[in-house]
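In the current project phase, work has continued on tokenised descriptions of protein folds. One protein thus recorded appears below exactly as we store it.

——
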Amino acid sequence: PNMAPEPRPPHTPQRTCVGCRAVREQHRLVRLVADGGGGVVVNPRRAVGRGAYLCPSLSCLEEALRRNVLPRALRVELPGLDAAALRRRIAAEEEGRSEAAARGKVRPGS
């Protein structure tokens, strides 16, 4: 008898959205990182430091802002947080992902 274990599917990192608290594949979420000036950067490339993950939707952002979870998730004060600019950035992220999905340029499952 063959005792070899069945091959497992590749591991996909999971993260929790700070807005809706849903656990999703990391590549489906937007990463937020404190910028050092009291604000946040959206989807920074290779930024070091503590990150928080958010679904690319305004409803999740609004829930995160309403519950004031970003400072706690990032473990930093955010006195310079520009909520309006953050809303625009997340809306652009949401729009970009829906356009990519319409063109078929999205990874499977995203």
